[in-house]
Amino acid sequence: MSNRLDGKVAFITGAARGQGRAHAVHMAQEGADIIAIDICEQIESNKYPLADLEDLHTTAALVEKEGRACVAIKADVRERDQLRNALESGVSQLGHLDIVVANAGILPMAMGNPKASDFVDATDVDLLGVMNTVAVAIGHISDGGSIIVTGSTAALMPGTTTNSVMGPGGAGYAWAKKTLLGYVEEMCLHLAPRMIRVNAIHPTNCNTHLLHNDGLYSVFRPDMRKTKPTRADVEPAFVHFQAMPIPYVEPDDIANLGVFLASDESRYITGQQIRVDAGALLKFPNGPVG
Known about the structure:
The protein is of the alpha/beta class. It has 10 helices and 7 strands.
């Protein structure tokens, strides 16, 4: 622990598990108090299980174990009023806001009967949810603060999430994440006079529930769809996706970059699209089937 975030307060969406939890714990280890929110209920189009209240309480306990305060609130990023109320409750208890991590995201893949509403659900969470998070935060965040957006290396590649197997939900995920590139760059310009940085982190396959589920396993091993591939079956295909010989990165790898972008060490770094992808985009600039 180096206390790089000592005295700061971070607002993190999708904080109940995965990358969001990792951001919360790592920032707490560096001295930040945390406002953690998550939907804590299922979205019908998203076939793998989302986090629940127990997961969110676990994140809060892990933050408090590091000696930092955590205000954990159930809220849906699609609902701006819920976000505003959650943030205002957290700020009233913790005093101020310095860091925003707009991390909540889903990948509702085509499993069963794909619907146009799958596209709507994906974009509502993955794009509108980010915009809502930033919208409620900019009136509270301190000058010199940091906003961090979770993107996706896969969504930057042609064909990875827009093929027929992924359906409208995969297309919505890709469109949302691609649209965030321009959004981050625009917001960085408009918040620059206040010395607030806005950057995006684009992970490759990450060791979370979004990756480890039957739907995505079938995408990586289409030859085994009838027999339901296991984690052991898909890991060789996961390794193929990166230039480095690894199946996926860990949430901690993303959180390590998050701490840097939240700290004063990155005070002049803004408008950046930073990949944590083990060389995946360079290996497949035209997509894995390009």
